[in-house]
Amino acid sequence: MLLWAGWILIVLGVAALPLDRRIAHFLYDHVSARNHKRLNSVTHAAKAGHWLGPAVLALIVAAVARQIGLQGQKLEMLANYSLAFIASLTVGSAVLHVIKLVLGRRRPRDDMEMGLYGFVPFAFNTNFNSFPSGHALTIFCVAVILTCVTPMLWPLWFGLAAFLAGVRALLTAHFLSDVLIGGGIGVITAREVLVLAFPAFAPGWY
Hints:
By secondary structure, the protein is mainly α.
């Protein structure tokens, strides 16, 4: 199911490419300074470092607990889900940054503020890093892992992921296609890592 969801996001992202510029200009003109400030205050909740740190800390806690003789299913789940998230983020980020470097897309604000728009393939310039969105990849990886932990809350986790990823487009930090494709890569990567490397911890419907 999640594999299909990830590919649907990617297909929607490709379909959004012809509309990206128009949507970005509309958002740039219609999101007020006050709303921009509010959105900017929450956008970093999708930043990789804010989730990677707690995941590493959870792994350390689990390792220390084992060393002092503590055992249990919850402890094993803590370690495995933390490791699964770190692996998902690592693999997904590797894929994402290869795409960024190879395709080299300018960010929306380069268009609004300097009149510079489009892809610069094989430029290998880190300034052309709009496509796909790393924030979207991160927060959708988080949603997949949290859905494993509490499957009944999947609408909440994916709803939050969609909101935080969408904020990147509302802020014109990314084009809509950047967000959709970044989210799709995140879903597929996290799903594949769980199914292939942690099958005992992945729900059957994944």
